[in-house]
């Protein structure tokens, strides 16, 4: 028995000792190292690495590298702001590399708003946040163009001309002057036009409703886009470089070849009883091939950043070059940026400075319907040679009896007219902060922007159209400088009182804008006999003309804001701003613009119980914004001092002055009043996010100059008045979902939807309607409705012509022949006149949408962006030329004009001459502008760290992308996504530069 007990005891001791040894071995510390990266392969600096359950921890360096000692059976916890925390069991490993997934909720937690920041979850107004990386993937010239399809309520239309700036509207048409939003870059009131480098963007927010934008008062009626540029971070010097090369090509028309053109033109002359032209059949010019070419874009960017405990810096340089798809068009930009900041105790100081120089070579002629290559290329005959030594300048164009056309030779215009504009811009701000207590901060901001512009127009000797007079050479040049100085002082108080959180902001701003220009002109320029080039310096030539002017305006403002948060459930935001502008008379200089918004976070209420819903917030807001978007001296009378008066028997001429422009001293601010209802919803651990808004916006006292008769004595343009009232109602919806499957695959998808209805409530000034081109704007209807003659098929025989009568039996079109268009006599007066026009369509889309999706698998990533527009009626200017068979231009390939043998066609008979069938103001050329477009698609690959470390890089990435390669539409023009800057004719596509197809390859690396 004793032996058994001893054996059991000894066995237990051995087991105990074995377990103790095993525990000792397993508890031995091991040295673990590795790198922490983001899903796109970039290292994440300063990641916290903690041994779970212990105080032991380290921080990764600037390049994401870390090293830590831990027990072989321990667990490491990796965490960083903006990324989801992740736990990894050591299991005896000595190398652990990890990729942290982005935490979208955290990334969007704090955003920049006017004169401060807010947590996204505490927003009570409508603000869209755009991922800067999505903008920088695209190959575009401006920020606005890159925003397309990425935010609800933001409509963007761009074009393919080098240096062309996109048109952007935030929540529809707010007034009748200009729809450009206000840009705020690093606190500076400025623009983000074609000389701004989008690669510098760190974050971008779009303030859409009046409550969000109210802090900017009178300048924010068209919305606000807030951009912050990249800043340096603590750590050693970091160098990032990228290079992108793109090939572009433009869509072209399918035009008739020489033989088809000649046959159809002969038919039009035969039907008119005219002698045929003696075409030069030895010529077969493809004008599109002569004018359009393959373009190229290159975008080179390099940046340097770093910092210490109390200071940081960021520097970048960029070259952007765009050789256009149209001959003699290009755009070049070189830009530099320096951002730095420092802190000493309670004092902080910093600056943001950007320099840029851009050059644009633009095409265009001085006459209507001439100089636009997309019009010239379809109006020129294929039987006209590009060059003809018999003509002044040596270019081919119309010839009586051989080519009876007044179309312009686009190659001649490109070579005989040079238009170049160069712009050097200085843009930046200096700021200083003093924070004596945690709750109180004073900030001073000085913003400065200066632009030096140089425009040169050179018209060489030579002609480009038939019967053109031989003009001497001419140069017209101007040099201009604009300056903006901004002084801002703000005081911010933030304090928690138990469950109450209060933030108070008060401040003043002062802005001064000046613009001055000097211009000169000379003719009969000297020519270098060796090179044939023209001397364009203004001290050469004759017939000198000089001119110049200077404008100046001031804006003084007072602002205040209250933010209140109770227990993270009840939110209140109130803003008041008072603006005074020198653009108005003393009686109307000042106006106040208030706003208030509130939010209720239902998900934080005790009664709300849901495992699936992480956040649910209701929002409501009301705000008023002003706009003084008029010239500097509109309220003053304009006097012409160059007049003369004859008096006395000797008929002596005496100096005289006369008022040439009517003045309106009662001009005042136009006011936008907007109400917004919305909600924010996050579900399934924030993987699903839904935001919806409904808004009503009305702009009263809209500033606009409606046409008046010159017999009133007005000879200086239409005087501005507070006339119209414009209203917009809209609904916005954004749905986004992101998730991760396993450790290697993550994906995201999002769709945004915008529906908007605008109408002109009233025109004011006693007007009921206003006409522009083929449109009419009437009270109670949308702006720029189509107003044209209505067609009713084609007469097939004489009997149909005779049977087309009004209610009184009068023949409506007695001169018509079979093959002519039948029109509707809407006023029943027995004839077709302008009185028979009526509304035939709406140029505004019913809704627009964007779809964005992407995924990441290991080192590969993919993303795409689709946009769509539905419901708009547009005018096809291309069709209004090529489908009119009158012998004045080329035609659509395969066009089948009406003949007795070909009656089943929508194209009327060919006829050279004036005819109702050849009119352009008919519904025949109004089409549906619906389209869906693959705006961007791209794939990227991040090279493995072990591979690139051998050549000294921390990261390297290769990407391929394409833009505008798929468009689904029934529109017959080149591009349904065209832009027209005339508000009243926004749906007219008459030679608009189409978006180009772009194929890009890019490489990025850092070390």
TrEMBL record:
Keyword set, alphabetical order: Cell outer membrane, Membrane, Receptor, Signal, Transmembrane, Transmembrane beta strand, Transport
Protein's membrane topology: Multi-pass membrane protein
InterPro entries: Beta-barrel_TonB_sf (IPR036942), CarboxyPept-like_regulatory (IPR008969), Plug_dom (IPR012910), Plug_dom_sf (IPR037066), TonB-dep_OMP_SusC/RagA (IPR023996), TonB-dep_OMP_SusC/RagA_CS (IPR023997), TonB-dep_rcpt-like (IPR039426)
Single annotated GO MF: siderophore uptake transmembrane transporter activity
Domain of life according to the entry: Bacteria
Signal peptide residues on this chain, from the entry's feature table: 1-27
Compartmental location: Cell outer membrane
Pfam families: CarbopepD_reg_2, Plug
Record Gene3D superfamilies: Carboxypeptidase-like, regulatory domain, TonB-dependent receptor, beta-barrel domain, TonB-dependent receptor, plug domain
Keyword Ribonucleoprotein included in the entry's annotation: no
GO biological process, one term: siderophore transmembrane transport
Annotated GO CC locations: cell outer membrane
Domain TonB-dependent receptor plug: 119-224
Family statement drawn from the similarity comment of this UniProt entry: Belongs to the TonB-dependent receptor family.
PANTHER family, per the entry: HEMOGLOBIN AND HEMOGLOBIN-HAPTOGLOBIN-BINDING PROTEIN 1-RELATED, TONB-DEPENDENT OUTER MEMBRANE RECEPTOR
Record protein name field: TonB-dependent receptor
């Amino acid at each position: 028995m004793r032996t058994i007990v001893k054996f059991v005891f000894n066995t237990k001791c051995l087991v105990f000792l074995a377990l103790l040894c095993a525990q000792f071995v397993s508890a031995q510390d091991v040295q673990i190292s590795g790198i922490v990266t983001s899903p796109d392969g970039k290292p994440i600096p300063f990641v916290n690495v903690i041994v779970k359950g212990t105080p032991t921890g380290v921080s990764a360096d600037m390049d994401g590298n870390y090293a830590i000692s831990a027990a072989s059976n321990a667990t490491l916890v990796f965490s960083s702001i903006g990324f989801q925390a992740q736990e990894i069991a050591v299991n005896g490993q000595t190398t652990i590399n990890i990729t942290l997934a982005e935490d979208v909720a955290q990334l969007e937690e704090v955003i920049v708003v006017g004169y401060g920041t807010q947590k996204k979850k505490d927003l009570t107004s409508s603000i869209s946040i755009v991922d800067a990386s999505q903008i920088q993937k695209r190959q575009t010239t401006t920020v606005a163009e890159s925003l397309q399809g990425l935010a609800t309520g933001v409509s963007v239309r761009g074009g393919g001309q080098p240096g062309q700036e996109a048109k952007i509207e935030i929540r529809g048409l707010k007034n009748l002057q200009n729809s450009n939003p206000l840009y705020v870059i690093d606190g500076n009131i400025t623009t983000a036009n074609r000389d701004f480098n989008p690669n510098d963007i760190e974050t971008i927010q779009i303030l859409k409703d009046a409550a969000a934008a109210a802090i900017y008062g009178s300048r924010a009626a068209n919305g606000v886009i807030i951009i912050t540029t990249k800043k340096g971070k603590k750590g050693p010097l970091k160098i990032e470089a990228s290079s992108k090369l793109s090939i572009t090509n433009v869509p072209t028309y399918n035009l008739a070849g020489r033989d088809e053109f000649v046959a159809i033109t002969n038919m039009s002359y035969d039907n008119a009883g005219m002698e045929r032209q003696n075409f030069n059949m030895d010529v077969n010019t493809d004008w599109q091939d002569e004018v359009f070419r393959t373009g190229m874009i290159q975008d080179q960017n390099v940046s340097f950043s770093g910092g210490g405990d109390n200071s940081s810096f960021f520097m970048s340089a960029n070259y952007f070059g765009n050789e256009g798809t149209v001959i003699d068009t290009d755009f070049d930009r070189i830009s530099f940026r320096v951002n730095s900041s420092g802190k000493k105790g309670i004092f902080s100081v910093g600056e943001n400075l950007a320099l840029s120089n851009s050059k644009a070579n633009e095409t265009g002629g001085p006459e209507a319907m001439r100089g636009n290559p997309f019009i010239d290329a379809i109006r020129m005959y294929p039987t006209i040679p590009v060059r003809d030594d018999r003509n002044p300048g040596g270019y081919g164009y119309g010839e009586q009896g051989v080519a009876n056309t007044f179309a312009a030779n686009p190659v001649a215009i490109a070579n005989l007219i040079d238009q170049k504009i160069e712009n050097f811009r200085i843009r930046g701000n200096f700021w200083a902060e003093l924070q004596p207590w945690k709750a109180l901060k004073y900030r001073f901001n000085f913003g400065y922007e200066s632009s030096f512009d140089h425009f040169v127009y050179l018209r060489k000797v030579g002609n480009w159209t038939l019967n053109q007079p031989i003009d001497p050479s001419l140069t017209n040049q101007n040099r201009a400088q604009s300056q903006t100085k901004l002084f801002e002082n703000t005081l911010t108080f933030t304090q928690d009182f138990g469950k109450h959180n209060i933030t108070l902001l008060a401040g003043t701003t002062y802005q001064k804008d000046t613009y001055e220009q000097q211009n000169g002109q000379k003719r009969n320029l000297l020519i270098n006999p060796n090179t044939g080039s023209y001397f364009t310096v203004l001290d050469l030539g004759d017939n000198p003309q000089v001119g110049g002017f200077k404008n100046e305006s001031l804006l003084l403002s007072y602002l205040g804001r209250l933010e209140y948060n109770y227990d993270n459930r009840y939110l209140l935001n109130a803003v008041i701003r008072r603006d005074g502008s020198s653009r108005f008379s003393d009686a109307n200089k000042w106006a106040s613009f208030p706003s208030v918004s509130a939010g209720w976070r239902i998900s934080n209420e005790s009664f709300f119980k849901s495992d699936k819903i992480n956040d649910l917030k209701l929002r409501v807001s009301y705000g008023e914004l002003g706009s003084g978007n008029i010239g500097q001296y509109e309220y003053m009378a304009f006097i012409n001092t160059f007049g003369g008066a004859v008096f006395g028997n000797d008929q002596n001429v005496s100096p005289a002055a006369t008022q040439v422009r009517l003045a309106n001293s009662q001009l005042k601010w136009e006011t936008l009043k907007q109400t917004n209802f919305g909600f924010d919803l996050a579900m399934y651990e924030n993987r699903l996010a839904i935001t919806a808004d409904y808004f009503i916006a009305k702009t009263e006292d809209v500033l606009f100059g409606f046409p008046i008769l010159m017999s009133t004595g007005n000879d200086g343009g239409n005087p501005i008045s507070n006339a119209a009232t414009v209203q917009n109602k809209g609904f916005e919806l954004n749905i986004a979902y992101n998730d991760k499957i396993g450790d290697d695959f993550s994906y995201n998808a999002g769709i945004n939807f915008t529906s908007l209805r605008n109408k002109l409530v009233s025109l004011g000034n006693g007007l009921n309607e206003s006409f522009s081109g083929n449109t009419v704007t009437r009270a109670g209807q949308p702006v720029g409705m189509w107003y044209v003659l209505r067609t009713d098929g084609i007469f097939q025989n004489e009997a149909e012509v005779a049977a087309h009568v009004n209610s009184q039996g009068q023949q409506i079109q007695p001169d018509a022949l079979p093959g002519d268009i039948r029109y509707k006599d809407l006023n029943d007066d027995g004839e077709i006149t302008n009185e028979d026009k009526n509304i035939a369509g709406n140029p505004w889309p019913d809704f627009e949408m964007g779809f964005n999706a992407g995924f990441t698998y290991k080192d590969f990533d993919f993303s795409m962006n689709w946009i769509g527009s539905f419901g708009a009626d547009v005018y096809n200017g291309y069709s209004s030329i090529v489908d009119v068979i009158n012998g004045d231009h080329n035609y659509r390939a395969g066009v089948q004009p009406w003949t007795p043998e070909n009656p089943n066609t929508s194209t009327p008979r060919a006829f050279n001459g004036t005819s109702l069938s050849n009119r352009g103001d008919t519904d025949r050329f109004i089409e549906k502008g619906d389209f869906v477009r693959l705006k961007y698609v791209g794939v990227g690959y991040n090279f493995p760290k072990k591979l690139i470390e051998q050549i000294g890089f921390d990261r390297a990435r290769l990407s391929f992308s394409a833009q505008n390669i798929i468009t689904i539409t029934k529109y017959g023009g080149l591009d349904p996504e065209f832009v027209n800057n005339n508000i009243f004719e926004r749906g007219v596509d008459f030679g608009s530069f189409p978006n180009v197809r772009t194929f890009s390859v890019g490489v990025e690396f850092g070390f």
